[in-house]
Automatic annotation (TrEMBL):
It comes from Polypedilum vanderplanki (Sleeping chironomid midge). PROSITE patterns: AMP_BINDING. This is AMP-dependent synthetase/ligase domain-containing protein. One of its GO terms (molecular function) is long-chain fatty acid-CoA ligase activity. Keywords: Peroxisome. Residues 34-351 form the AMP-dependent synthetase/ligase domain. Its main location: other. It comes from the Eukaryota. GO terms for biological process: fatty-acyl-CoA biosynthetic process. GO terms for cellular component: peroxisome. It is found in: Peroxisome. The keyword Signal does not apply.
Amino acid sequence: MEASFNSELKIWRGPKIPYPFSMDTMISDLVLENLSKTPERILQITRSDDKAITCNEFKISMIRVAQNLAKIGIKEEDVVGIIARQSHLASYIINGCIALGALINPLHAAMNETDICGIFTQTRPKIIICEFDIIPKVQWALKNVDFSYQIYSMSNENSELLKAEDFLKPTDNEDNFKLPRFKKPANEKIFAILCSSGTTGMSKGVCFSHSSVLSLISEFPKTTYTTVSYTTSPIYWATGFFPNITSVLLQNELRIVYEDKQVEIREIFEDIEKYGITSASITPTLLALILQDENIHKYNLKSLQSVTSGGSIVSKTLREKFAEIFPDKVMMVPYGLTEIFVSMTKPNEYKQEYAVDLELVKEEKF
């Protein structure tokens, strides 16, 4: 199989291979199917308070989000902006929007007013779900836009604000929920607009179809044991956004939810040891600090099998240090994770330091 290049559009494409589902199969079809198979299985745990959520609790919550969003007029193809920390509520909202057919557009809390205005002026969200402390910045950024929107707060710090938690109110119709059939097939139906990391310039909006995720998930190895995933990335990044979906699509995964805040190296060590984390996504800067920490050998990190690190330069020194400390663990380095979903390399397979091996690029499936 060979990659091809469209010189007119200036687009590289991997080889096309058959899509493993029918084109009317969407993400939420498989999500609800998987959640129904093991209703009592623990799906997610928030590391700050050890609050565990079962598959059935998750299913009911995402259905309520979809139904309550529909009640306020959100419909297929509407955009829902979100600037929020990782949480159970954020996961419910993301999956509820996907079920309804709305498009999720996450932004980073650290973005300035110009960037927020620039993205949202293009995507024109009907509602924007924010952390309480971000709301003034969003209001200032959008004070002159030519579209209407409503802001919902992720917390209850101001009684006058609309609350995102209201989307979890019982509807008394959860058992009768039916997934809507969308107008477009899976390879055309967009469910999210993510911004690139900005590594190579200004952040760009990237659209994701249902087929792009389901194709990738179909390639994941089937395991008979429970994998425990962990990421310190915010929802804005692909490594922080997609675990909210992939963990629900995989039947043997437990996700540890690390709420965005000042990261403590000690907490990461403690979490790996406490929860038996098998796969972690960690930024290069944070990974460098972890590998330099003098306490790294004081913790039992044997459960960890792989670490994904990207979003900025992953130096040769960092890769070599990882291999030195963790010779039995795999390090994956994604490049263009948001733009091409997903291209990764294993550092120990590098033939030349700055070469690109097209054989390692993920095949495109449509």
